[in-house]
Design goal:
3 domains; binds 2-acetamido-2-deoxy-beta-D-glucopyranose; 4 helices; five-stranded antiparallel beta sheet; alpha+beta; about 220 residues; RmlC-like_jellyroll; disulfide bond; Jelly Rolls
Length: about 220
């Protein structure tokens, strides 16, 4: 079985992955994180203590880091996540953003955001885009420049540049910390027991080993 077909199988065998959390309502106009205090992590949220609002500046509410593409991976995808870590003004506002650039033929592999619905906007290019619902029904088509598509929270989605030029898409999320689980790495790169994976996918230990080498960052040479 080809790895491509195999990854497709993995997507179709996934069940609904819904999270019941949403970002809390803000109780202040804004909360620019104070680098002096760092992050406080709780079970559900990461809290960034605010600096005195009198110390906030216009620059805290402006982000210039998405004017250009990020660093391209071997597979031709470059992403620049925009969240309170690099754009402090977003903190507590329940939103975040991403810029993704795809070389010709490149893909954004199947993944999902446990805490956010995403609207994707094709700024340049032709991008096959879609998601799979909890009945394993796929909703997908090629989006042209200027079109947007919504990926409901927690559902697996994917994109591929099917045009003849590089593509740029922006995504906005209704959480400041949407989370991102890439299906291939979550399955084959996380350390799940081989025997379970062999039984789940009906593959030999050799085939599982091949997938692990491909998707486990710890096994990459
Ligand atoms: C915030 O800054 C203002 C102006 O400097 C000051 O009056 C106020 O006491 C500060 N608030 C806190 C909680 O430190
Ligand atoms: C791209 O890589 C450079 C050098 O490693 C790094 O300084 C920069 O922050 C990276 N850019 C992004 C958007 O990740």
């Amino acid at each position: 079985m080809s790895p491509k077909l195999f990854v497709l199988l993995v997507i179709f065998s996934l069940h609904c992955l819904l999270a019941l959390a949403s970002d809390p309502d803000p109780i202040q106009d804004f909360c620019i994180p104070n680098p002096k205090y760092g992050a406080i992590r709780t079970a559900r949220f990461t809290i960034l203590p605010c600096k005195n609002s009198s110390e906030a500046t216009t620059d805290d509410f402006v982000f210039s880091g998405i004017k250009t593409a990020g660093n391209f991976s071997e597979t031709g995808l470059a992403t620049v996540p925009v969240n309170p870590t690099n754009f402090p003004g977003l903190n507590t506002l329940g939103m975040s953003f991403v810029r993704a650039d795809l070389k010709v033929g490149a893909i954004n592999p199947p993944h999902f955001h446990p805490r956010a619905t995403e609207i994707t906007h094709v700024v340049h290019g032709s991008v096959y885009s879609g998601f799979v619902d909890s009945n394993n029904r796929v909703f997908a088509r090629v989006l042209e420049q200027g079109e947007v598509m919504v990926f409901p929270r927690g559902l697996v989605h994917f994109q591929m540049n099917v045009g003849e030029k590089p593509a740029t898409v922006f995504g906005s999320f209704n959480s400041q910390n949407p989370g991102n689980q890439k299906i291939p790495a979550a399955i084959f790169g996380s350390g799940i027991d081989d025997e379970l994976l062999e039984k789940a996918f009906g593959l030999s230990s050799k085939q599982i080993g091949m997938m692990k080498r491909k998707f486990d960052p710890k096994l990459e040479a």
